[in-house]
Write a structure and sequence with these properties.
Elements (H helix, E strand, L loop, with lengths): L15 H14 L21 H4 L1 E8 L10 E9 L5 E9 L2 E11 L7 E7 L2 E10 L5 E5 L6 E5 L6 H13 L8 E2 L6
Antiparallel strand pairs: 1-2, 1-8, 1-9, 2-3, 3-4, 4-5, 5-6, 6-7, 7-8
Organism: Azoarcus indigens
Main location: membrane
GO cellular component, one term: cell outer membrane
Length: 191
């Protein structure tokens, strides 16, 4: 069975009908295919972010599990500060079973994004999307994601969030099509 684009290629020696049905089913579920279910609209960022107000320390309240945070057991923070070259210094910190771990990187604001899209790099030349998809008017909480809905963080200026405020942040993520079933809450020990 062959399919344009190389999605389903190769020769099947056994189970051609089953393999063909499986391949057809997979193609129908693919975004943009004729038989696909209702498409989720693209992720949208907030309209604008005032960088000076966004800089500073943020506490991670919840996140989708991430490989690079696999050793973090709590006390996760992100600290953003402006560098002399106009880029943003990113300092992520978390508690592990063996102490604390830090990762330092840089971010740049994506042009014409109103400051709501950044590209973050911890290891040049690789970088990732950092999209601010929810933000409190007073900059007390933020929801950060990416265009493919693989990543999600709920951040707060304080180590704890009242439940009603947390629900606003969660709703901002749901409004962007995020399924929160995989959301994990972060233990923050109050200093």
């Amino acid at each position: 069975m062959r399919h344009a684009g190389g999605v389903c290629t190769g020769r099947w020696k056994t189970g051609r009908k089953v393999a063909g049905a499986l391949c057809t089913s997979l193609l129908m579920m693919a975004p943009g295919s004729a038989g696909a279910a209702e498409e989720t609209p693209p992720v949208q960022t907030v309209a604008a972010v005032e960088l000076e107000r966004y800089l500073g320390k943020w506490y991670e309240i919840a996140r989708f599990p991430m490989f690079f945070q696999r050793n973090c057991v709590g006390d996760v923070t992100a600290d953003y500060s402006l560098r002399e070259d106009g880029r943003i210094r990113v300092l992520n910190r978390c508690r592990t079973d063996k102490g604390f771990d830090e990762a330092e990187g840089t971010a740049r604001v994506v042009e014409d994004s109103g400051g709501a899209k950044l590209r973050v790099s911890f290891f040049w030349p690789f970088s990732g999307d950092y999209w601010i998809i929810g933000l409190a008017p007073d900059y007390r909480w933020a929801v950060v994601g990416d265009p493919e809905r693989k990543y999600l963080w709920i951040l707060s200026r304080t180590p704890a969030m009242p439940l009603d405020v947390l629900e606003k942040a969660r709703q901002a993520a749901r409004d962007q099509g995020y399924d929160l079933g995989g959301l994990r809450y972060t233990e923050q020990r109050l200093d």
